[in-house]
Amino acid sequence: MKKILSLNEDVLSLSNRPSYRRSRVKSTRQSDLAFEIVVSHYNENLDWLKQHSDECCVYSKGGKTNAPQPPLTSTPLPNIGREGHTFLYHIVNHYENLAKVTLFVQGRIDDHVDMTVAEMKAKALTTAPGQVTTYPFRELELFEHWEGIPWEKYPCWKRWSSMTMQKMQETPLELFQKYISEDDRVPVAIGFAPGAIFAVNKKTIMRHNKAFYQRLLHKMFLGKMAHVNPETGHYMERFWLALFNPS
User: Fold this and answer.
1) Gyration radius (Cα) of the chain, Å
2) Rounded to an integer, what distance in angstroms lies between the CA atom of residue 136 and that of residue 66?
């Protein structure tokens, strides 16, 4: 209970900021949405989403000067936690009125996905309970570095490791075992989709209760991990599929 209370204090502090109060997620949000696109935005051009603006819930972390332009609207968030913080924030704050299917995306996807938004939506709507639809729809990569990501061995990850990074004291194994695994077991490897672009059914999200996501949000992205580039952001990118579909 102490961790959840601490989380609520952090959320309360954020909600008291004037800029946050003015731009909170629509108070008239429907409780029976069939489909929604949750966007983790910083300063990317979101013109690719304008034709679907009525289906978007944009969280912008780039300040007023980088906020998306109409017809898109956005909710400002502090620039912490990468997309993992954004996605968990949405789940926690809309747990009771999640869309039947949610497509989670970053502000820019053309470096990962060669599909139109309409094509992505059509694919997302086929996502049944217990399934996760990933983009691009291809073979997943495997994560097996349970003792820590060896950043120096992977040149393609250099731009992330070269940034100032808030390191996590616990290993991926310890975090997965305590906060993700349903039986304390950790598989040899888990599949993940680089870019964290995926669609999931409401029933799948609700396999875990709200407190589960609150606890995960607090551990991964608040407190000492409230950083623009926390190592836990990279861990969550690799954990999503196992969280929703442990098999």
Assistant:
1) 17
2) 27
- Cβ–Cβ < 8 Å for 228, 160: no
pLDDT in tens, 65-121: 999 999 999 999 999 999 999 999 999 999 999 999 999 999 999 888 989 999 999
pLDDT tens readout for residues 171-201: 999 999 999 998 888 999 999 988 899 999 9
Q: Which residue has the tokens 């906020």?
A: 67
Nearest-angstrom CA–CA distance, 68 and 213: 27
